[in-house]
Amino acid sequence: MYSVALKMLTGDRLKYFGLIAGIAFAAMLIVQQASILVGLTRQTGAFIRDTAQADLWVMDPQVRFSQDQVPLRSTVLQRVRGTDGVDWAVPLYQGFNRGHMPDGTSFTLILVGIDDATMIGAPPQMELGKFADLRRDKAIFIDGDTAATKLMMKRGGGRAIRLGDRFTINDQEVVATGAYRGRESFFWEPVIYTTYSRALTLSSSDHNTMSFVLVKIRPGQDIRAVQKNLVDRTGLKVLTNDQFIDVTADYILKATGILVNFGLAVILGVVIGSLVAGQTFYNFTLDNLRHYGALKAMGVSDGTLARMVWLQAGTVAVLGYGIGVGMGSIIGWGLRAGGLAFSMPWQIPAFAFASIISVCALAAWLSLRRVFKLEPAVVFRG
Amino acid sequence: MNSAATSAPVTSAPITSAPITSAPTTSATKTLSAISCRRLSKVYGASETAVHALRGIDLDIPLGGLSMLVGPSGCGKTTLISVLAGILDKTAGDCVVLGQDMGNLSAPQKTRWRRDQVGFVFQSFHLMPTLTAVENAAIPLLIQGVGRSKALAGAAAMLNRVGLGHRLSSLPGELSGGQQQRVAIARALVHSPRLVVCDEPTSALDHETGQQIMLLLREVANEGDRALVVVTHDSRIFEYADLIAQMDDGRVTEIRQGIAAAAPGPL
Ligand SMILES: Nc1ncnc2c1ncn2[C@@H]1O[C@H](COP(=O)(O)OP(=O)(O)OP(=O)(O)O)[C@@H](O)[C@H]1O
Ligand SMILES: [Mg+2]
């Protein structure tokens, strides 16, 4: 009877494709929205991940996310270095500043100053030039991937900043001496690297400031214990890389309303998708109700009828899911090529699969209730 | 085409519906009757809205013949045939079909009983539109768990038998009404059931086609060891019956031998 069930399903091409298209649409919607949400979430942690060569971040207790600017006193560094379990500690400057391109284009940038001696906090990879170039006079590194859009001279220059170009940060000249490759960031402002000491000179703030202290713990030390030592000794906020990533994502997603918006979109995707997929399948069964009635009269047991409906639901669920996730991935691939946030860890397709299967199961179950309630005697009416 | 051989059991059926006060025991009728009903009643619904569709049916139908249930609309023909075929539960009375007391069967037992004992022919054919003729005709065998290729072979043979051997892989939508009803008849016979019930098998067809379908059913009835029960109100096909049960208002008012039984000979 399973061949009969499948033929009932596939025999009417239009209905069959409609059914699969409905489910594919639902799966795609879920995958899309969830992947964009995850992509955006990941992007909020880009700076921390790029910089995560140490174990702990020491910051002012008022810091809410990685681009927040609450300076630390310079004495903090010594205190941190003198704390139990600390192998080494380096300062990191990070702050929004104003720059001017050669043609006068004004722009906001995120300036990052990394420890002159160790270069701890440097981006993971250089695209053009080498890390040591940062020690040259007036040297800064630009992001090779995003310079074309984020460092565009719009007032007559007609091109983007490239290596060798001079421009100013807070009216002080700098030279683009290298291009790094960083993770895609949630923030639109270009991230420009320089040494810690030069960052302090360039930055607009008048007193010596330090945004973070990056701490490496001694080998064999328990990170939680060192974290606690540091909190006790400095009274500051001390976070691991992962904690800081979470705190940042949490803050940005909530503060910007992204969580609510995309969370709603995911829920909407599940709900609309469920309605579409569930409704189509339910209708499909209702359309076939008279055939189920005839089968019942001819002696098909409820158990067999149930397995037939489950088989139909399972078939369209799996096919629709496959197509939907496939299309979602292709569109996502396009989105990412266009620089948009899209990230699909395996949990998303798994979640979409679970959703689609549950929806189809629910629709099948509702349909089956109608099939079970059907009196076989209806076959002789109308 | 000769029905003389099949007319013999008719003589043992009551000629009228006069109540048989001391009804023969079911075991006694078993060997003679395909169907034996005593004071059979069916009530739809309850209290004020209750409809008494069957009000004490006494009826015996022999094996090996074509019986017709006839009567005005609403007199309970469909209800009776539904109870006989085991797709509707009676309210009261006795109903023994093919030796089986219908009151003793649980719902799943009834389902299995129908699967093995009953063939159905419907007014509106009830073919699956997405299945070919041969697949439709194979359904009863598939329900019984017969392997697909064996079931299709059996169905093809039966379609051949009803004159549709050349349309095996046509979809119902590509067949005429008469051809569709032939597929339905092949489906009703493919698993060799001993009871075949047909509700208005000709009323969706034109007269000519209807006559051909009745000829086919008549042939099937002549084959012997099974009972065909046909519900109809088309008096033009009464001539194909061995036995005609006239119904009115939920009762069998008259039972008479049909022309087929009375006047044997080529149809
Ligand atoms: N499911 C039902 N619920 C309530 N009443 C019903 C139901 N089915 C049939 N009836 C009623 O039972 C009576 C007998 O109906 P049935 O369908 O058996 O008649 P019939 O002789 O087959 O009529 P027709 O020739 O029009 O098909 C009618 O009064 C009908 O309205
Ligand atoms: Mg009727």
UniProtKB/TrEMBL annotation, chain A:
Location, primary (coarse class): membrane
Domain ABC3 transporter permease C-terminal: 264-376
Keywords: Cell membrane, Membrane, Transmembrane, Transmembrane helix, Transport
Cited Pfam families: FtsX, MacB_PCD
Gene Ontology CC terms, in alphabetical order: plasma membrane
Transmembrane segments: 16-40, 258-282, 309-335, 347-368
Localization, UniProt: Cell membrane
Name the record gives this protein: ABC transporter permease
Source species of the chain: Dyella tabacisoli
Boundaries of every MacB-like periplasmic core domain copy: 20-230
InterPro entries hit by this protein: ABC-4/HrtB_transporter (IPR051125), ABC3_permease_C (IPR003838), MacB_PCD (IPR025857)
Topology of this chain in the membrane: Multi-pass membrane protein
From TrEMBL, chain B:
Transport in keyword set: yes
Keywords (A to Z) from UniProt: ATP-binding, Nucleotide-binding, Transport
Domain ABC transporter, first and last residues per copy: 38-267
Gene Ontology CC, one term: transmembrane transporter complex
KW Iron-sulfur (keyword) present: no
Signal peptide bounds: none
InterPro entries documented for this protein: AAA+_ATPase, ABC_transporter-like_ATP-bd, ABC_transporter-like_CS, ABC_transpr_LolD-like, MacB-like_ATP-bd, P-loop_NTPase
MF terms (GO), sorted A to Z: ATP binding; ATP hydrolysis activity; transmembrane transporter activity
Coiled coil, from the record: none
Xref: Gene3D superfamilies: P-loop containing nucleotide triphosphate hydrolases
Similarity field: Belongs to the ABC transporter superfamily. Macrolide exporter (TC 3.A.1.122) family.
Protein name, per record: ABC transporter ATP-binding protein
Species of origin: Dyella tabacisoli
